[in-house]
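hey
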C-alpha cells in the first residue's frame, strides 16, 4: 500500500478537538463509521461520531460517483485552461495577493499550505510551508487541480462551496481514503457586489495542524480579501461615475441613468431609472450586481445595444472609457425611445480613438466646447464639413475629431492633404492618382490618389482655398459622382469618402470675387463650423501653457518649467495672432532656451515682446468692478460647470489629472463636482 503523504507517527490530535456532538474527535471511530457508510449507505450506529455537515457531504459524494478509494483530484486544467481561469479571476487574485503573502509568511514552516481557488474549486494559487506544498503533489492538491465535492468528495474546499459556510474537515472525515491523512479548513470568499461565492481560501496540512482558531483564521483571511475586493470595486465604480460625466450632455433630470461595469453588472443607478424601467420593460430588478449585458471574461461586446434585453435596445447606451479601454457603459432610460446615435454603434477601439481625439484639443473655454459639440454632431451625418478659422487654430485636430466621432470599427482611414503644398501640375495625380505612364514622371505601375486611400473614411483637404480655380470642377465631379478617374484612365473607381475641408480664407468673399467656384463652395460647405481663435478662448491660454510645457518636458527629457505670475499675465493678455501654433512654438522655445527652469518676462523672445507691445491687449473678465448681476453669475456657473466636465472627460475620468489641468486642488474639484451635480 502506498505510503500516505504524511505519516501518522509523531502526530497527535490536539486535546479538546471536538465534533458536532461535543465529543472529542476519535479517528478510529470515525473510520469505522465511514466503513459502515460505504457498506450500508448510512450510519448504522445512532451515536456514530460523525458531524451532520460531514454525513451530508458523504451522501453527496456517493451521489456524484466519487471513488471512495481514490487519492485526491483526478481533474487538472491544461496550461491554456489555467491561463484563462487566472485571467477570468484576475480581480480575485489581485485582491487576495497581499493577504495571501502575509498569511503565507506567517505560516512559514508550520506544516500548512495556503490555497486560493475559484468558484468551482479549481486551485489558482498555493503558498506556505514548502514541505507541505511538495506533499500536496501526491494527491494533486496543486495549482490547476479541481477540488469540488463532485470530483474529490468531502474536503474543506468543495464542502465549503456547497454549504456556503466555513468548514473544517479533519483527517478521517474526508470521503476519499487517499486524503485521510490531511486536515483542511475552507472559508468562502464572497463578491461585494452580489454576495455570490467567487472563491475559497483554504488551509491544508497534516491532521495535527487542526485547531479551532484555524477556522477563525480562514474566515479572517476571506474577510480581508473581500475588503480588498470591495475597495477595488469602489475605486472602479468611482472612476466609472467620473467617466460618465463626459457622457451626461443630452440627458435630462427626468432620464434614468444606469452605470454598468465591464462585466455588464449594475454598479449605480439614479432614482428615475426604476421609474423608467417599469414603463418600458418587464424587468423590475435594478439591484446592484444585476447583469444587464453579457460579458466575456470582463470584456463588453463591441455592439453594446445588442447585448441588452430586446426592449431596451432602442435606449441610449454609451461606452465608458478609462485609461484608453472600455471599462463599462452608461445606459440612459428615457421616457421615449431614442435613436442611439453614437455610443452603441462604436467599437471599443473607436471609442478609445474618439477619447484620444478629444483629449488632443486642450482647453475648456465655452467657445471651444461649443465648436467641439458642433463637430461631434456634424460627424454623425455623411455631408461634407467645412472648417473655417485663422492660421494656427488647430483645424487638423478638429478634422481628426470628425473622423474619430464618425467611426464605427475604429479602422476607418484618415487621410490628410494640404492643397497649397504641391504645384498645380502635381495636384491631380496626388488627389486622383494616375494610370501607368500617364505623364512624365508617372510610375509604370500607376498609383492610387488620396481619394482612394481614404475610401471608407475621411479625407481632410487643408487650405482648400489655395486650390486652382480651373482644377475645382474636377473635385466637384468626384464629390457629385462619388467616383474618381485616375489621370490618363477612363475607368471610374467608386469611392466612399467623407470630405472635411479646411481654410483660413473667407471663401464666401472668394466666391464673390471669382476666385472660388460657387457650386463647389455650396457642395463642401453643407456644414460650416468656425474654429475660434485663441484670443476668444477665455481661460485656455493657461491650460495650453501647461499642456505644451508637460509635452516638451517629456520630449526633451527635462523638468517642466515654472512660470512667474508676471509672465503668465503677459501670455494671458497677448493677442496671439498665430493662435495655438504660436503658443506651442513659444513654449518649445522656452523649454529649450530657459536656463534656470523659471520663466520670467525677460526670458520671452524679443520678437514676442515687440509684437506684444504693438498688439492691443485681449479683453478679459476681471474680478474687480461693480457687483455682477445674478444672471451673469449664473452664466459663469454654467461656463465653469461645462469647463469642469470637459476637463474631467479629457482626463479620462482621472480627477487628479483634471484638477491639475484646471489649476485646482482635488478637494476643490470634488467639491465643485458635487455642487453642480446636486443642482442638476
Amino acid at each position: 500500500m502506498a505510503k500516505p503523504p504524511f505519516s501518522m507517527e509523531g502526530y497527535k490530535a490536539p486535546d479538546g478537538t471536538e465534533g458536532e456532538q461535543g465529543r472529542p474527535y476519535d479517528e478510529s471511530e470515525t473510520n469505522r463509521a465511514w466503513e459502515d457508510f460505504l457498506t450500508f449507505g448510512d450510519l448504522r450506529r445512532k451515536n456514530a461520531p460523525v458531524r451532520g455537515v460531514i454525513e451530508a457531504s458523504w451522501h453527496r459524494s456517493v451521489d456524484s460517483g466519487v471513488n471512495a478509494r481514490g487519492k485526491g483530484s483526478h481533474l487538472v486544467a491544461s496550461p491554456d485552461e489555467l491561463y484563462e481561469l487566472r485571467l477570468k479571476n484576475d480581480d480575485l487574485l489581485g485582491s487576495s495577493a497581499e493577504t495571501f503573502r502575509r498569511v503565507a509568511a506567517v505560516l512559514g514552516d508550520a506544516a500548512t499550505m495556503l490555497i486560493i481557488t475559484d468558484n468551482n474549486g479549481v486551485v489558482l494559487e498555493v503558498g506556505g510551508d514548502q514541505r507541505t506544498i511538495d506533499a500536496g503533489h501526491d494527491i494533486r492538491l496543486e495549482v490547476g487541480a479541481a477540488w469540488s465535492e463532485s470530483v474529490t468528495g468531502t474536503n474543506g474546499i468543495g464542502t465549503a462551496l456547497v454549504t456556503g459556510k466555513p468548514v473544517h474537515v479533519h483527517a478521517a472525515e474526508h470521503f476519499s481514503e487517499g486524503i485521510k491523512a490531511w486536515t483542511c479548513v475552507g472559508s468562502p470568499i464572497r463578491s461585494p457586489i452580489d454576495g455570490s461565492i467567487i472563491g475559497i481560501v483554504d488551509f491544508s496540512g497534516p491532521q495535527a495542524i487542526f485547531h479551532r482558531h484555524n477556522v477563525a483564521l480562514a474566515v479572517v483571511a476571506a474577510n480581508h480579501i473581500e475588503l480588498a475586493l470591495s475597495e477595488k470595486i469602489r475605486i472602479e465604480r468611482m472612476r466609472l461615475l467620473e467617466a460618465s460625466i463626459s457622457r451626461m450632455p443630452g440627458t435630462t433630470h427626468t432620464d434614468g441613468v444606469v452605470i454598468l461595469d465591464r462585466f455588464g453588472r449594475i454598479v449605480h443607478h439614479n432614482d428615475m431609472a426604476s421609474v423608467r424601467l417599469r414603463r418600458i420593460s418587464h424587468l423590475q430588478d435594478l439591484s446592484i450586481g444585476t447583469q444587464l449585458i453579457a460579458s466575456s471574461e470582463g470584456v463588453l461586446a463591441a455592439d453594446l445595444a445588442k447585448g441588452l434585453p430586446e426592449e431596451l435596445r432602442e435606449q441610449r447606451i454609451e461606452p465608458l472609457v478609462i485609461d484608453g479601454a472600455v471599462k463599462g457603459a452608461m445606459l440612459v432610460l428615457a421616457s421615449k425611445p431614442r435613436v442611439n446615435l453614437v455610443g452603441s454603434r462604436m467599437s471599443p477601439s473607436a471609442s478609445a480613438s474618439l477619447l484620444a481625439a478629444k483629449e488632443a484639443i486642450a482647453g475648456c473655454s465655452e467657445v471651444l466646447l461649443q465648436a467641439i459639440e458642433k463637430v461631434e454632431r456634424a460627424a454623425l451625418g455623411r455631408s461634407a464639413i467645412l472648417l473655417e478659422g485663422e492660421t494656427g487654430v488647430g483645424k487638423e485636430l478638429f478634422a481628426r475629431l470628425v473622423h474619430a466621432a464618425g467611426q464605427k470599427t475604429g479602422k476607418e482611414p484618415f487621410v490628410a492633404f494640404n492643397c497649397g503644398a504641391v504645384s498645380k501640375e502635381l495636384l491631380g495625380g496626388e488627389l486622383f492618382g494616375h494610370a501607368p505612364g500617364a505623364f512624365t514622371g508617372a510610375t509604370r505601375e500607376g498609383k492610387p490618389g488620396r481619394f482612394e486611400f481614404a475610401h471608407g473614411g475621411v479625407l481632410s483637404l487643408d487650405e482648400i482655398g489655395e486650390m486652382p480655380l480651373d482644377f475645382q470642377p474636377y473635385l466637384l465631379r468626384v464629390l457629385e459622382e462619388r467616383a474618381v478617374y485616375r489621370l490618363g484612365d477612363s475607368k471610374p473607381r467608386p469611392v466612399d469618402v467623407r470630405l472635411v475641408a479646411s481654410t483660413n480664407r473667407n471663401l464666401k468673399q472668394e466666391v464673390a470675387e471669382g476666385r472660388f467656384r460657387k457650386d463647389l463652395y455650396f457642395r463642401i460647405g453643407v456644414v460650416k463650423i468656425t474654429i475660434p481663435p485663441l484670443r476668444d478662448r477665455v481661460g485656455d491660454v493657461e491650460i495650453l501653457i501647461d499642456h505644451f510645457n508637460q509635452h516638451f518636458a517629456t520630449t526633451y527629457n527635462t523638468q517642466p518649467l515654472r512660470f512667474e505670475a508676471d509672465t503668465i499675465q503677459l501670455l494671458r493678455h497677448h493677442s496671439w495672432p498665430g493662435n495655438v501654433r504660436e503658443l506651442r512654438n513659444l513654449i518649445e522655445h522656452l523649454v529649450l532656451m530657459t536656463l534656470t527652469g523659471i520663466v520670467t518676462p525677460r526670458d520671452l523672445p524679443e520678437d514676442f515682446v515687440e509684437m506684444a507691445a504693438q498688439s492691443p491687449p485681449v479683453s478679459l473678465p476681471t474680478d474687480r468692478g461693480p457687483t455682477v448681476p445674478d444672471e451673469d453669475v449664473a452664466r459663469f456657473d454654467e461656463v465653469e460647470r461645462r469647463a469642469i466636465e470637459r476637463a474631467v472627460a479629457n482626463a479620462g475620468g482621472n480627477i487628479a489629472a483634471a484638477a491639475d489641468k484646471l489649476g485646482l486642488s482635488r478637494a476643490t474639484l470634488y467639491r465643485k463636482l458635487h455642487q453642480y451635480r446636486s443642482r442638476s
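The chain has a mean pLDDT of 81. Residues 52-233 form a domain with the Beta-Lactamase fold (CATH 3.30.450.40).
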